[in-house]
Amino acid sequence: MFTEFFCGIGGFASVMPPQTEALSIDINRNALEIHALNFAHRRSCKSLESLPVATATEFPNKFWWMSPPCQPYTRRGKQRDLEDPRAAGFRNMLTLIGHVRPHCIGMENVPEFQSSQSHALLLETLSRAHYHLAEVILCPTQLGSVNRRRRYYLIASQDSLLPWRTLVESPLLAQYSRRLESAVDMSQFGLSAAWQTQFASALHVIQAEAFLEGREQTTCFTSAYGRSPVYSGSWLETPQGIRQFTPREILRQLGFPDSFQIPAWPPEKLGPLIGNTLSLPAITYLLRHFPADSCPSPVQPTWQR
Question: What does the domain layout of the chain look like in residue ranges?
């Protein structure tokens, strides 16, 4: 039914019905290890840069989802666009789409993607294949999440798409995404004294009380969280000291249920994987704009059950 390219830990699979026929593809074996803890469907460790058309024709093609690397379009990634080697997989994906023509397509990337050469090539490919498409810049805070994660999204279908729905904040999502763990190992997650001194003016620190009461939001968590103290996500000031948000707390802010399993890996190993995943409320919102017979209905989120 669906193929998830650049699948990571399985953000798109998390909103799909569990019985759906599916294939998830990524080159990162650590991400696929977490994926295997949570989903029973097929997965494959493949490089998408050279994936042949003949192989892709055998993939489930009712719906293709892709979350290609964002570094070619960010300042930290030097904005090399199509010249960045990390964009090679995306370029090949466009070739595959032109030949296979899956019924529906969805994509996520950073907002800067929308002004890139890659974006122009994407629209050209979809136009030649006669897709109906819609684009939006969306932040999960517009749906009730406490995490700011503005992203570019595209949906395309061989059928007409439904008009954009009014964005409605969910107080249940807001309450769920603010939940904190009761006991946190400060030796593992605490902010070191050296970093507090060196980066004092650049750290984004929020008060635990203000966060729990909904008066402060977290910034976007990235793949550098846990390895870089700045521009990679927020820090939390608690009575025990300033600390990172734990992987479980970040997953809650991204809409993942507590039943989603993660290994007991150190934060510097889990951080890049969780920072690269999707915001599930945003994906759920997007999927509701496909005709009912074009795409499986997303599963009901934990906070609405």
Answer: 2-166+279-293, 172-274
Query: What pLDDT, on the 0 to 100 scale, is given for residue 305?
Result: 58
Closest CA to 62 of 291, 303, 253, 302: 291
Annotated catalytic residue, options 70, 139, 220, 295:
70
pLDDT of the residue at 260: 96
Q: Which of 162, 111, 103 is nearest to 287 (CA)?
A: 162
Q: Do residues 72 and 86 make contact, with C-beta atoms less than 8 angstroms apart? A: yes
Residue type, position 6, single letter:
F
CB 22 within 8 A of CB 295: no
Sheet containing 205-207, strands listed edge to edge, beginning at the edge strand earlier in sequence: 205-207, 235-238, 241-244
Considering the chain, what percentage of its residues have pLDDT values greater than 90?
Answer: 83
CATH 3.30.1490.20 describes domain 2-166+279-293: no
pLDDT of 297: 82
For residue 167, give every residue at least 6 positions away whose Cβ sits within 8 Å of its Cβ, in sequence order, or none: 138, 142, 143, 285
Q: Is 70 exceeded by the pLDDT of residue 304?
A: no
Token match 């009712």: residue? 62
Question: Would residue 7 show up in a list of annotated catalytic residues for this protein?
Answer: no
**Token digits for 178?**
């603010």
Domain 172-274 fold is DNA Methylase; Chain A, domain 2 (3.90.120)
Cβ-proximal residues to 17 (8 Å cutoff; 6+ apart), any chain: 296, 297, 299
* Residue appearing with tokens 């763990």: 181
Q: What is the mean pLDDT of residues 259-270?
A: 93
Query: Rounded to the nearest 10 degrees, what angle do helices 29-38 and 267-275 cross at?
Result: 80
